[in-house]
Amino acid sequence: MSKTAVHQILRNRKQVITGADYNGEKEYHRFSHGNLYPHSILHKKNCDYCDFLSGPSGPKEQADYVDALLEEINAAEEGKGRSVSSVFIGGGTPSVLDERFIGEILNHIRQKFQIADHAEITIEVNPGTADRNKLQAYRTYGINRLSIGLQSPDDRELKILGRVHNYEQFLETYRSAREAGFDNINIDLMSAIPDQTYEGWIHNLRTVAGLDPEHISAYSLIIEEGTPFASRTLNLPDEDAEYNMYEATAQILREYGFEQYEISNYAKKGRECRHNVGYWIRQDYLGFGLGASSLYGKERFANTQDMKKYLENSRTPEKIREKEPPLTREDEMAEFMFLGLRMTRGISKAEFERQFGSETDAIYGDVLRKYKSMGLLLEENGRIFLSREGIHVSNSVMADFLP
Fold first, then answer.
1. Considering only CA atoms, which of 403, 262, 263 is closest in space to residue 333?
2. Residue 32 backbone phi and psi in degrees, to 5
3. β-bridge pairing 215-220 and 265-267
4. How far apart (Å, rounded) are the C-alpha atoms in residues 22 and 7?
5. In sequence order, what are the beta bridge partners of 104?
6. Are strands 33-40 and 83-91 parallel, antiparallel or unpaired?
7. With 80 as the cut, is the pLDDT of residue 233 above it?
8. What is the C-alpha separation between 390 and 26, in angstroms, rounded?
C-alpha cells in the first residue's frame, strides 16, 4: 500500500463525510454489523473549494439517477443476512432530491438489508433545500439524524466559499428540523477560509455551539487541484493561525459540552456519529451510487465515475465497480493503525492482537518508539493515541505504518 493509497482512503472518507456510505456500530464483532451509504451526486452548484463528484439536478436527471441507484441496491450480493446499524445518505446534496425519492431509497434498503431497530439513519441537508414538509417526510421515512452543511455563520465567508445559502436560510432549516422532531443534528463548520481571522473563527464556533446541536464537524479548508480556488491567489491564514484555530476548537467546544472523539469531529455525550466511527475502526461499509466507495471483508472497491456507464450498468454491479487488489494482512494491519489513530481514543493493543495474532510492538515497535520519543504518540491503559502535537502532523505519523 502506497502513500497515495493512504491519501485516497482518507479522501474517500472525506467524500463519505459529505456523501453516502454503508456504516454501522461494530463493537468489535466484525461480521455482525454493517453500514450503508447511498450516494447522491446531485448538486445545485459546486462550491468553489469542492472537488467532489457532482451532476445536474433536474427532474429527469433525478428520476434516472434514483432508478439506477435502486437497481444497484437490488442487485448487490454483499450484506445478505447482516444487520445494518447505520445508513448515511449523502453526496452531493441529497436534500435536492424530491422527498419521495428518499422514501423509495430507504424502502429498497429495508427490503434488501436487516436494518437494526435503533439504527442511525442520517441524511445530509444543505440550507435552503429542505423545507418543513420535506423534513417532516424524512422523519416519516425513519431518518433520525441530520447533517447540515453550514460551513460558516458569516455571510461574507459563505460568499467567499461560493455557497448558495446565507445564515438566515440555515437558521430556518435548523429551526424547522427541531420542529419536525430531529433531536440529533450535526452542523458542518470550516476554518482557514480565505480572509478569515482567528477572532472570526472563534466567533463562528461560539455562534454555532450556542445553537446547541448534538454534533459539530469542524475541519479546515483544503485547496484541491482542479477547483476554482486552486486557480486563484487566496489570502489564507498562515500556519500559526491555523494551528491556533484548531487548538481553540477543542477548548471552546468543551465549554459547550462537546468532546472531541476524532480529529475533526466533536459530539455531546453518546452522540458520536456511528457512520464516522465505523469507518475509522474499519467496519465493513457498502457505498451505492456514482463514485461511491466500499470496504467489504478484504476488498476495497469504488463505483465508476462515468454517469453513462453507471446508468446503463447499475443492475450489474461487477460492471460498474473498479476494484483494488485484495487487502493483504499487512495492508489490514496498516489500516487498523492509521485509521484508528484518527480517533482521539486511538487503537487498542489487545484488539490488534485479537484480530491479527501479533502484538503491536512486534510489528510496529520501531515506529511506535520513534514517535513516542518525539512526544507525538502516547500510550495509556493499553491504548495508543496521538498527542495534541501528534494530531497536527498526523498524516506524517500515519504514513510510517505503511508496509
1. 403
2. -100, -30
3. antiparallel
4. 20
5. none
6. parallel
7. no
8. 26
- pTM of the predicted structure, to 2 decimals: 0.87
User: Confidence band (pLDDT; 50, 70, 90) for 351?
Assistant: very high
Greatest Cα pair distance, the chain, in angstroms, is 59
Residues 6+ apart with CB under 8 A from 180: 132, 135, 136, 138, 139
Residue 245 has pLDDT above 80, yes or no: yes
Joined together, the cell numbers standing for residue 32 give 455482525
As a whole number of angstroms, the distance between CA 41 and CA 288 comes to 11
SS (H, E, C) the chain: CCHHHHHHHHHHHHHHHHCCEECCCCCCCCCCEEEEEEEECECCCCCCCCCCCCECCCHHHHHHHHHHHHHHHHHCCCCCCCEEEEEEEEECCHHHCCHHHHHHHHHHHHHHCEEEEEEEEEEEECCCCCCHHHHHHHHHCCCCEEEEEEECCCHHHHHHHCCCCCHHHHHHHHHHHHHCCCCCEEEEEEECCCCCCHHHHHHHHHHHHCCCCCEEEEEECCCCCCCHHHHCCCCCCCHHHHHHHHHHHHHHHHHCCCEEEECCEEECCCCCCHHHHHHHCCCCEEEECCCCEEEECCEEEEECCCHHHHHHHCCCHHHHEEECCCCCHHHHHHHHHHHHCCECCCEEHHHHHHHHCCCHHHHHHHHHHHHHHCCCEEEECCEEEECHHHHHCHHHHHHCCCC
Mean pLDDT of 189-206: 94
d(CA 118, CA 238): 44
Q: Cell digits for 360? A: 503491536
Q: How far apart are CA 294 and CA 372, in angstroms?
A: 33
Q: What is the CA radius of gyration of the chain?
A: 20
Task: Give the whole-angstrom CA distance, residue 13 versus residue 265.
Answer: 13
- Confidence check: pLDDT of 53 > 60: no
Is residue 92 a contact partner of residue 40, using CB atoms and an 8 Å limit?
Answer: yes
pLDDT in tens, 57-103: 678 888 999 999 999 999 999 987 788 999 999 877 889 899 999 99
